[in-house]
Amino acid sequence: MRDDRSEALRDWYGRQARALPWRIPPGSDAMPDPYRIWLSEVMLQQTTVAAVKAYFATFTTTWPTVHDLAAADDAAVMAAWAGLGYYARARNLLKCARAVVADHDGVFPRTEADLLTLHGIGPYTAAAIAAIAFQSRAVVVDGNVERVMTRLGAIETPLPGAKPEIRALADTLTPDTRPGDHAQAVMDLGATICTPKSPACVLCPLRDHCDGRKAGIAESLPRKAPKIPKPERRGYVYVARRGAQCLLETRPAKGLLGGMLAFPTSDWSDTPIPAAPFDARWKDAGEVRHTFTHFHLTLRVLTTTQGGNPDRGEWAPLDPKALPTVFAKAWRQAFPDT
DNA sequence: CACACGTGGCA
DNA sequence: TTGCCAAGTGT
């Protein structure tokens, strides 16, 4: 706390902290609920605050404690996560909740090392939970911290090579008192002031300490390797409706959209091979486009209202909200009225 | 270490 | 319209 930069950051956070559903106000002596901190941190992995809010409300209402979540049906949790993306997080969320109940008496472990043993908790999340939920002096490094630290220290080493330098600087800035507030202060700064593009340096509590700003290179940091263009893939998706039911399948537990509810599809490739789940007069309903992390996809949507004996999946009532976004798009393309 | 893994918003 | 990006983890 001797550090001028940490003090400036703490004071700024005291004034400008965002009010978030999982957050206690800066300086508060209230005890955060580790379950809610954990849940919010997992949801926030590579995901914006705006996208997380509604899901956090649904999850904490439906499953208020880690015991409730551990006892939930897999399908219910996957359906509730639908649309948020990175579905391995939902699968790991259940594994983690069940391990906390089975192996830790329903109480989240307090140390980074113990937290790290749980599914879906990596170095960032372990440090964040230790700092925010348990007031432990953990050094929290995420994308925001990387951006703020590379600018503050004018670190021009490209990522990921710069990580040791970044961590060392973050360690220097982390105070002994209220390290959880400090971690959230850096992340709020990165989200609202020290943004990827057009940072608002004039409003920054660290502007007089920032070497990147002094050198006029802040906005160009952190340096990163150029992105590889995404390849194009194509496929066929089969949307069959029979009265109130649709033909649905649960995707394999590993891989893309693993464990999620889906319509049957062909393979997705340069030259997909049509693979209707049963013989029928399939009607061409046009195409939908969707972009995943590492490829673009164009799906030709084929529909029928005939019945049939499918070679995979089963007839079941459909809640479109339980589908990953790419299949929700296909559903809307197939049956715009519903 | 490099790559797989979603999505919606914004310039 | 296209590309970039957001509180990363697992393999």
From TrEMBL:
Transmembrane segments annotated in the record for this chain: none
Top-level taxon: Bacteria
Domain HhH-GPD positions: 43-192
Cofactor(s) required for function per UniProt: [4Fe-4S] cluster
Keyword Metal-binding attached: yes
E.C. code: 3.2.2.31
GO biological process: base-excision repair; mismatch repair
Family annotation (CDD domains): ENDO3c, NUDIX_DNA_Glycosylase_C-MutY
GO MF annotations, alphabetized: 4 iron, 4 sulfur cluster binding; 8-oxo-7,8-dihydroguanine DNA N-glycosylase activity; adenine/guanine mispair binding; metal ion binding; oxidized purine DNA binding; purine-specific mismatch base pair DNA N-glycosylase activity
Matching InterPro entries: DNA_glycosylase, Endonuclease3_FeS-loop_motif, Endouclease-III_FeS-bd_BS, HhH-GPD_domain, HhH_base_excis_C, HhH_motif, MIG/MutY, MutY_C
Alphabetized UniProt keyword annotations: 4Fe-4S, DNA damage, DNA repair, Glycosidase, Hydrolase, Iron, Iron-sulfur, Metal-binding
Co-factor binding details: Binds 1 [4Fe-4S] cluster.
Reaction(s) the record says it catalyses: Hydrolyzes free adenine bases from 7,8-dihydro-8-oxoguanine:adenine mismatched double-stranded DNA, leaving an apurinic site
Free-text function comment from the UniProt entry: Adenine glycosylase active on G-A mispairs. MutY also corrects error-prone DNA synthesis past GO lesions which are due to the oxidatively damaged form of guanine: 7,8-dihydro-8-oxoguanine (8-oxo-dGTP).
Protein name: Adenine DNA glycosylase
